[in-house]
């Protein structure tokens, strides 16, 4: 599966009617894109560099996305839209342990690993991330993918703005904000890769931590 995630920011001084029209336009573009699955959801309070709207599309392959991207990009090119950043990626390691339920939340973490990081170190980092669902019961589904194409109008570097997308479906928002972020597997194992005071840090740039309400499940067990 080929995936496209876009994080959309409202333009400065946009009025509520203008933003509502933008969301409707973007949702219509996603609906008609031919994606196998799609999600368009407003972000919830607490995101970090997470924008105001998440657009997530899944296509059978990259060719299907390329055939549709013009119409999707046109939907995103709205006067009420300020910045857009995101990533494109083939589905990586994924799993599902349970149904998400009616209060489900989709979360995506866009990460940039330092470009000089050895491959074996990256693999250890990825392995640590993938340990999390085994310890955190509120993660109903997950997927970790390496980015093949990325965009970020906020990023000053010429390097690829994102290298990984770490996605989850949570049973509810409170679990994301408490059980996940406060869990020992998070601060005791995973945080060392992000903490500038740790010698193992490899994520030196800002991250995009974004999440919104989930309707239908979007992360299949096999990616």
TrEMBL record:
It holds the Pfam family Dabb. It comes from Rhodococcus baikonurensis. This is Dabb family protein. The lineage of its organism: Bacteria, Bacillati, Actinomycetota, Actinomycetes, Mycobacteriales. Residues 105-206 form the Stress-response A/B barrel domain.
